Amino acid sequence: MNSLDNHQVHRLTSFVHELKLDIKMALREPSFIWPTLAFPLMFYVFFGIVFSDHAGQSSSTYLMVSYGVFGIMAPALFGFGASVASERDKGWLAIKQISPVSPWQYMIAKLINAILFSLIIVVGLFILGAVFGDVVLTRLQWLSIAGLMLLGSLPFCAIGLAIGFWVKAKSATAVLNLIFLPSAFLSGLAIPVMIFPTWLQKAAMMLPPYHLSQLGLHLVDMSLGQPIWLHIAFLLVTLFIASFIAVKGYQHCQTN
Amino acid sequence: MNSIIDINGLSFQYASGKIQHQVLDDLSLSINRGQIVCLLGANGAGKSTLINLMLGRLKTQQGHIEIFGQRHTSREIRQRLGVMLQNAAAPDRAKVCELLELFRSYYDAPLPLTQLYHDLQLDSIREQYFGSLSGGQKQLVLLAIALCGDPELLFLDEPSVGMDVTTRRVLWQVIERYKSLGKTIMLTTHYLEEADALADRVVVLKNGKIIADDTPQGLKVAFSHKLLKAKTSLSMDVVRTLEAVINVTQYGRYFEVTSTNAALTVAKWQAIDPHIDDLTISNCDLEQAFIQLTDDHTEQNNEEKVA
User: Fold this and answer.
1) What is the pLDDT of residue B87?
2) What homologous superfamily is domain B33-60+78-215 in, according to CATH?
3) What's the complex ipTM?
4) pTM value?
5) Contacts of residue A25 in chain B, CB cutoff 8 Å?
């Protein structure tokens, strides 16, 4: 029993080392940290607070949720995708794969790292919304939105991971931007999807950020009224497919 | 049983479109505990493929490999291995001390940090970012990572690439120290003097086959040809036709000639060119033995194909 405890403590210590180093390395990458943290907050200040002054509380609430989705996508996609692709190209992933450490340790550390960055963005948006955007929500609504955003980052982490394992480091950022920006805008994160032409609204329904934002907006009674199960199912399918591609990618890296 | 690695009938081929390239061909090898084995071979000879197969980074297609008596490199087996891969690097924004602390945490009985810093002379760079290090320092950090778990079996795939004289000396000292502790080391290198200085056993690969397996001294004796160096006004074609000459390299007027009978070659050379200058005769080193060995094997293969 004692030796089992020691073993568990050893594995936990190793995990803490892994997580600490991953967070430190992300913080030491200014080209990652500033755009990731600053863009969603900056966009929200401009479009959710300054320019929507006349539109009132509903606009700042809507955009707080939609920019929340926009905000959590970046650390999930780039934190995972670009960093895994870079570490894979350098051979760092190969060094880890032949070490005794479980691959889960590496991936879970990156996942928690992405979720921590997402949390900072979500809390930042909440503070801006509550203080400057006159957003008024119940405690349960604040907590539900925060929980949803953090949980909702999982499919995007899986997409990032899949790209990180399959795409070369040099192309990874470009590929991720190609996914991130169009899917964010087409999902109605910057401009409400209701004002899109009908065909574009249909296209939005094929994108994961749309479904996550609709779940968030449902919590503040601003969704388009589609069934919740549809959004949850779409995000779960995305998570499953992207995770499957990521696992295949990991196995591919291990033997290539 | 003293054997730590057993390879039997190992074949491997890469497929590129419709073209199949045979990298390893029915290769068998056994390595005992405490040996330092150097894999030698030209680029594409199959050295790295063999290492990657041993580490489980490539799937075996034919034949089998056993390390510590097991066919799969499980987590328990990896606890006993240390690996320094060719062309691998750590993230630029990680400090040396952070990388070593992280890797030490992967092992049940790691080496103390102070020992790693001391043995690999990393004390002065422990707080530096990996990305800010020189090529040689990076290689030493990667070697320290490989040594973190105090491995019984160490794989070093071209460890001295990018190292200057000082860092290479540190590498050699570490390898010699490990050798004295009875550890097993599998080394690939392009530097033949490194193999000569460090290895107990040299395994030469060519076209995926083992063409020689001996001590460095044994290889040199087996290919105990003489190396003649001299300045001459003769052309390359004429020097090639001298008696007992098997290999010629020209640097302007300066020639390096490998001969199976130095006295005969010199006599004929002087007869054609009485003004031959700066003549020296020496025994072949491992490099010349290696060149002759791989050349001889090519010729032998060509003859077999013609026959």
Assistant:
1) 83
2) P-loop containing nucleotide triphosphate hydrolases (3.40.50.300)
3) 0.86
4) 0.81
5) 91, 93-94
